[in-house]
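Obj.: predict assembly geometry.
Materials: sequence records (below).
Method: joint structure prediction, all chains together.
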Amino acid sequence: MGTRTKIILGVALAAVVGGLYGLSEFNREPETAAQKKAVEIVSATELHDAFLSDETAANARYVGTSEQAIRFTGIVRSVEEPYGGKVSVVLETADALAGIVCEFEESAVPAAWKVGDRVSLKGICTGVNDLIPDVILVRCVAVE
Amino acid sequence: MKIQNILLPAAFLVALGSSSTTAAAQDRYMTRTGHIAFHSATSVERIEADNHKVTSVWDATSGAIEFAVLIKAFEFEKALMQEHFNENYMESNTFPKAAFKGKLTGITAEQVKQPGRYDVIVEGELTIHGVTKPMKSKGTVVVDASGAVKASSAFAVKPEDHGIKIPGMVRKNIAEEIQVQVSLDYQKM
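Observations (raw structure tokens):
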């Protein structure tokens, strides 16, 4: 095989590998919390308190500059009606109105969970909302 | 956390506590599971995202309406789109929230208690990417027989109006106007 042929084959191979990588990147789905290692382990109350006392610091710690999962425990306040294939489980905080709102794929919510249960889960924290200061976590999964 | 973020919920709790004695409190509605969807459709690419965690409070007596949105709670089908949305365009680490504050007209507090479909106008200030612009849109409020109240509206937003810079290389991939749909299932406070 001549040098020229080797170069052409090398370039073609690089193009194919690059193209396949680009395609897989383009089609990559967002990771659930199950696919991420938890960077923090806290209680739902501690998590909510952290956002109420210093939102900037809590954003830096729990939201991060790129997506990260946190693991936490709490008491179920409510399991909301499904919407668009998703279900929100709201955990108790010291605030009677605001909660830790954990969005699951509908199929990922354990059927046994009910109001008052102490549960453990992992989720991707997106911050604390305004108007009703819920801390919002998405792509949550239950943890045994 | 900003002071108003603490004071507002406190005010709502006061309203909740006095809801049995004041007509005004009975006419307030809220949701924490509002839905905002947006899409950009071009010949090159279709981009869609959903956020089901919109908070909103509406006072049917005064017409005052607000909603708040966490930018990182928008969910995309593809991770790369979501990363570009947060990091390159919305800069969600710097501008983590969007908000609307304004007035809803075309329905009275009494009408909200009667089943029906009402054409409304919503007008106010929309803050995205740290830039506030006036916004006016048509909408609909539907009250069903059970008393459930659903409000919806659709409008278009130009990224450049809110200081969102889109590089020339990908400008054809993203529509000049992003179509936004808002759906809010209100509960009485």
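Conclusions so far: Chain B has a mean pLDDT of 88.
To do: check interface contacts against the pulldown list.
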